[in-house]
Amino acid sequence: MREVIGQELVVSAVPVTVEASVGYVFSDDGSDDVDELLRRADVALYVAKEQHTGAVRYDLAHDHYDPANLALITELRRAIEADELVLHYQPKARFASGQFDAVEALVRWHHPVHGLLTPDKFLPLAEPTELIDGLTDWVLTRALTDVRDLHSLRDVDIAVNVSARNFSRPDFADRVLRILQNVGVSPDRLTIEITETALLADPVRAATALSQLDAFGVQVSLDDFGTGQTSLQYLTSLPIDELKIDMSFVTDMLENASHAAIVRAIIDLGHNLGLRVVAEGIETRDVFRALHDSGCDVAQGYLLSRPMPVGDLPRFFAAVPDVSPAPRLRLPARRACRRPTARWSSWPVRSSWSRWRSSS
């Protein structure tokens, strides 16, 4: 089937080839129910597209949909309609100026039984289904509405993560623009974060969507950079504005010389290509200083601030006197623990960014 589909066609005198991904399942794989077999074949198809392996036979190891997870997916559909989802925001700051000028939106689910669920508990279940489209639209709408309505965020940009399946939709860029128009937020305030894996899952459609978003003025960030297999050709040919260094390299860069070298290499690569470079997962002052000295552009992590509900953002920004054009960064005076339990407002602050930077 793949060989037949892949044969060259001529359309309007232009040679065209099509690559196909196939997912399949046998009826002796544990079910004779037609709907269940089709669902399993769809799971295998998603794996084939994600891993670029051409054809994949269904395997239970690929399937996250045990009865409990299937129930959770059904509840998630209802949760979107019932407004049980919430967004928390983690501020990001410029190393050079010390200003907070962006926040990243992180979705949470207030489950009536299981409590507050983090994205890793439900996003992997939603991503292989059409539910991810409605979820992404909800996150975009809510995040853009929040930055529009909060006066303290009038000069702050918003970053939103999207999945590989979102980029496989031919209308994705149009949906983003429609949401921006409906909410009334300028496209240049929005950054779409896409992982390397998502970019490689369907590079042709991803390139089309990225070009459309770029034409609208939306910024594009390549998230978790360094953990995938992105071709350098993509970095030069696609409209990407930002590289985000994966936190696995940042967290232990002072103890792991190889990770430190990777961090420096990504910073140099990004700057040579004219891209902004973000380091996430910053938890100690020493790591912060090392990234600052390496020329990194943007800082994000628990050292600066934990993710917080939207209601806490005005207090966070108001705590720093310089709010024009954006609040200045203040670091906690004590060394942050890996998983701090204290809220940002309880950290002792002894000096402004400028005094700390001059003393370093």
Structure report:
- This protein is α/β, with parallel strands linked by helices.
- It has 2 domains: 2-63, no CATH class; 82-359, EAL domain (TIM Barrel).
- Helices cover 40% and strands 19% of the residues.
- The protein has helices at 2-5, 34-51, 67-82, 123-126, 131-149, 164-167, 172-183, 196-201, 203-216, 232-237, 247-250, 257-272, 285-293, 313-318, 353-359; strands at 9-11, 14-16, 22-24, 55-57, 85-94, 100-111, 115-117, 157-161, 190-195, 219-225, 242-245, 276-279, 298-299, 308-309.
- It has an 8-stranded mixed barrel, surrounded by 4 helices.
- Helix 5 runs parallel beside helix 7 (172-183) and helix 7 runs parallel beside helix 9 (203-216).
- It is globular and about 60 Å long.
- 34% of the residues are buried.
- The model is unreliable at 321-328 and 332-360 (pLDDT under 50).
Q: Give me the CATH superfamily of the largest domain.
A: EAL domain
Output the number of helix runs.
15
Number of domains: 2
User: What is the percent of helical residues?
Assistant: 40-55%
Mean pLDDT metric: 81
Strand content: 15-25%
Structural class: alpha/beta
Note the gap between the termini. 63 Å
The CATH topology of the largest domain: TIM Barrel
User: Helix and strand succession?
Assistant: HEEEHEHEEEHHEHHEHHEHEHHEHEEHH
CATH architecture of the largest domain: Alpha-Beta Barrel
Strand order in the largest sheet: 5-6-8-9-10-11-12-13
Biggest pleated sheet: 8 strands, mixed, barrel
Low-confidence stretches: 321-328, 332-360
